[in-house]
Each structure stands twice: as structure tokens, then as C-alpha cells.
Amino acid sequence: MKYSRIAGTGSYLPKKVVTNEELAQKVDTTDEWIVSRTGISSRHVSSPEETSSYMGYHAGLHALEAAGLSANDLDMIIVATTTPDKGLPNTACLLQERLGITNIPAFDITVACAGFVYALSVADQYIRGGMMKTILVVGVDVLTAVTNWDDRSTCVLFGDGAGAIILQADDKPGILSTHLHADGRQKDSLYIPTWLPGQRKEEELSYIHMDGREVFRFAVKALGQVVEEALAANHMSQTDIDWFIPHQANLRIITALAEKLKLSLDKVVITVDRHANTSAASVPLALDEAVRDGRIQRGQTLLLEAIGGGFVWGAALIIY
Ligand code: COA
């Protein structure tokens, strides 16, 4: 078994939907401003019960079902999240407990909005290395819980959700390659202050802080480079891509990248209009939606990318 391949996908979205019009009643904004600058019309917002482990669990169950497997078939659980239920135990352990299984490794990785691509890369290495056969990979975040609802420049951008895949060992590819990058010099462009009470300055609230223009500028450049890197590593060109599944942060970033790749928008999976930016969940949520509605078919070539606070970013080329 030389490769890992996606055996099933799943997702979960909170029940509550908040529209731009509803936000415009709370902060000084308009539906027209939000749609024209971001492409976002609405977002799902978690209830206190819809934590990362809860949403990840439901997404994971859907992915197991789609793969025709049960929780007992899993060798490992990796959860990408920046919004864990607790400081400890990690979210993957809480999800494992919800699944009713024990004794397999379960850990989180904190790579902001790029978390799913990073987690996919880690899972792929474990499977290619022969240590594991079946891994549940979840991307989940509850960014609305760390959103300042009085700050119009950030509160319009984020939503909650979870996406999951089952990655399994296979003789055929599968994950062709993953490409990861980070640049810690950009730590002040997008961050959440510490939530450790003992290390928090009195005046500092643990909300998302963002230099929107800098994030936008960096994202278009870095994502453009990493998708080209992924194509070159596989001796492929844009014409080989059946579906582009980008991080769903802003429709203008997605459009700029699609233009750079010379991909028509009907080859791009877009959910940002209804989901907003769900951080680590954004790519697997979009993947699951397009698999379930029949757009993505077995054997097709997928290009995934994501970027998050750090900055951290990456891409993956996949035969579905
Ligand atoms: N409604 C109305 N006006 C708003 C607003 C809102 N929700 N948010 C900001 N504005 C105002 C600003 O205050 C500013 O007003 P001013 O010119 O009087 O100071 C004006 O709109 C323009 O702000 P600007 O920051 O130039 O807008 P922009 O075109 O850069 O769009 C973002 C702002 C945030 C949509 C855009 O920069 C962006 O999407 N960046 C990337 C964010 C992102 O993807 N983050 C997550 C990455 S993982």
C-alpha cells in the first residue's frame, strides 16, 4: 500500500444561520458592503452545545458512513482546530470519547485556517510510512466564539462548522502531494491574544485581530505560489485540474487565484457565500458539499489550498 486516498467525506453545520441583514441591525454595515467586499451573504453560528468536538464528531460520523466503516476501524484521529473545547484534553480525545472508542492516538494540530491541509499532510505521511491504515482527519472551528461582534471589520467574515475525511491506505493514489509553508514574521497580521488567564494583560480580550489588507495581499501571493508549486511537483498544468477547492475566506481572493490559474469559476467549489470563513473547516466542508451533490467524481483531480494566521499556508493535489 503506497498511497493514501480519501475513502469518505462528511460535514456538520450549526443550525443557526445569521444573514448580513441581521448583522446590519447590530453594527454599522450593509448587505451590499459585505457581499461586494467578501462574497459572503450568511454564515452558520454555533450554540454553546455545538462545540468543536460536537461538530467534529458529527462530521466524522458522516465521513465514516460514507466510507462504509465504523469507528472501530480507525487507527488514529487528527483534529485541526484553533478553537478547542478545553485547554486540555485535546479536541481529538473528546471526539474519540464521543465515538465510543479507546486506545488509538488522538491529537490536535493548531494551524488556524490552514489546519485541514496540514492535518491531511500529517495523516498522509503516517499512511505512506506504513504505520497507519485508516485515519479520521477533521477540520473544525468555532471562530464566532472569538469574534468581537461589535467590530464590523471582522464580525462579518467568520462562521462555524466542521468537515471530515477518512484517509485510507491504498495501492492507487490518492494524495499525490502536499506542500506546507509558514512565515512567523507575519504574526501580527492575524492573531488571537492568549486565553491563558495568567498570561493575559488586563485590557486584552481574546478576540480575532486582523490587518485585512495585509492578509488579502499576502494570501493572493502565497496561495498563487503554493498552487504553482503543487502543480509543478506533479508535472501538471491548470488544465489537469477538475476541481479547485480553495480556502473560503473571501470571494475576491478566490477569484483572483482562479484568474491566475486560468480556471473558470465553474471549476471552483464555492461555499463562502453561505458559510463565510469557517477556518480549518472551510476546505473539507466545501469538499464534502461537492462530493455529496455529485460534482466531484471518483478519479477526478482536485487542487486544495488554504492560508491562516501565522502566516501558515499549504496546498494538496489529490486524485479523488
Ligand atoms: N461594513 C462597512 N464598512 C466597513 C466594514 C463593514 N463590515 N468593515 C470595514 N469597513 C470600512 C472600513 O472602516 C474602511 O472605512 P474607512 O475607509 O472610512 O476607514 C472601509 O470600509 C474600507 O476598508 P478596507 O479595509 O480598505 O476594505 P477592504 O476592501 O480591504 O475589505 C476586508 C476589507 C476585510 C473584506 C478585506 O481586506 C479582506 O477580505 N481581507 C482578508 C481577510 C481574510 O481573509 N481573513 C482571514 C484569512 S484566513
Task: Describe how the helices and strands are arranged.
Elements: E1 3-12, E2 16-19, H1 20-24, H2 31-38, E3 42-45, H3 52-67, E4 76-80, H4 91-99, E5 106-109, H5 115-128, E6 134-142, H6 152-155, E7 160-170, E8 175-182, E9 190-191, E10 209-210, H7 212-233, E11 243-246, H8 251-260, H9 272-275, H10 282-292, E12 301-308, E13 312-319
Parallel strand pairs: 4-5, 4-6, 11-12
Antiparallel strand pairs: 1-7, 2-3, 6-7, 8-13, 9-10, 12-13
Helix pairs in contact: 3-4, 7-8
This protein binds coenzyme A.
Describe the protein in words.
By secondary structure, this protein is of the alpha/beta class. It has two domains: 3-172, Peroxisomal Thiolase, Chain A, domain 1; 176-319, 3-Layer(aba) Sandwich (Peroxisomal Thiolase, Chain A, domain 1). The chain contains ten helices and 13 strands. The protein has helices at 20-24, 31-38, 52-67, 91-99, 115-128, 152-155, 212-233, 251-260, 272-275, 282-292, and strands at residues 3-12, 16-19, 42-45, 76-80, 106-109, 134-142, 160-170, 175-182, 190-191, 209-210, 243-246, 301-308, 312-319. The strands form four sheets. It has a five-stranded mixed sheet, with helices on both faces. Strand 12 and strand 13 form a beta hairpin. Helix 7 (212-233) packs parallel to helix 8 (251-260). The longest helix is centred in the last third of the chain and has 22 residues, at 212-233. The chain binds coenzyme A (COA). Coenzyme A binds next to helix 2, helix 6, helix 7 and strand 12.
